[in-house]
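Input record, target 12 of the design panel.
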């Protein structure tokens, strides 16, 4: 079993602002898009929020790239290009877990930090290819069309599916950043021993319990934690925290 810390949602580059925490709930805003989507922000109840967060730069009628997509305790997530190649090269697939995180702030845009907002336990991995012919059976119960089944994509266009959920409460247990610099994470003890892709430089791990997170990269993947009881327990605790929130 491997874990990918998968960065998603609004930030200073995509969307131009952090996703907000609204009345104690982290609301991950999907990034805007102009194509390969039939879903608008207003279609998923995010119209007013995205207009307020962006001060009208993005409207509720604009298209969004809603991915990962959660519904009824399930999650579907698409990946392509270099990020998908990285997952492939790390042997990531069925039996592994995505922990989705993003940049968040309070309703006034203060206290910017990274936090985990959802997860996906992968039970199916589907190679959709550059021109997906039709949505796969696993997506039949979803209310909206998944963007990675629309239009033309990279040849390695891949869909991951399985049990998944999003957090409804911004608990401290799901916060990654320490107070202060967003890129300084407070990490569990086991992570340094297991390792994380894109973080091989020793100076990122100089302080016990801290990690200076890389600015680039969508998928930060651990080596296998199958034989690491502390790591497996930590992941189970994170998922339990999300499910009960």
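The sequence produced for target 12 reads:
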């Amino acid at each position: 079993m491997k874990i990918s810390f998968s960065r998603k949602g609004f930030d200073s580059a995509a969307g131009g602002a952090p996703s907000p925490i609204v009345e104690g709930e982290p609301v991950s805003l999907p990034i805007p898009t102009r194509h390969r989507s039939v879903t608008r922000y207003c279609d998923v109840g995010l119209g007013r929020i995205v207009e307020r967060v962006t001060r009208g730069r993005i409207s509720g009628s604009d298209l969004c790239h809603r991915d990962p997509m959660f519904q009824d305790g399930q999650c579907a997530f698409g990946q392509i290009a270099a990020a998908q190649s990285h997952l492939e090269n790390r042997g990531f697939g069925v039996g592994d877990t995505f922990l989705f995180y993003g940049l968040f702030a309070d309703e006034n845009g203060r206290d910017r930090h990274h936090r985990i907002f959802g997860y996906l336990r992968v039970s199916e991995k589907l190679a959709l290819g550059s021109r997906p012919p039709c949505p796969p059976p696993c997506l039949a119960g979803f209310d909206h069309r998944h963007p990675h089944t629309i239009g033309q994509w990279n040849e390695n266009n891949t869909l991951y599916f399985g049990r998944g959920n999003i957090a409804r409460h911004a608990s401290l247990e799901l916060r990654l950043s320490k107070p202060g610099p967003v890129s300084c994470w407070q990490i569990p003890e086991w992570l340094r021993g297991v390792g994380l892709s894109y973080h091989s430089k020793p100076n990122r791990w100089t302080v016990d319990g801290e990690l200076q997170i890389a600015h680039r990269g969508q998928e930060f993947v651990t080596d296998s934690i199958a034989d690491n009881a502390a790591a497996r327990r930590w992941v189970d605790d994170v998922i339990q925290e999300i499910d009960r929130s």
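The CA atoms of residues 44 and 144 lie 9 Å apart.
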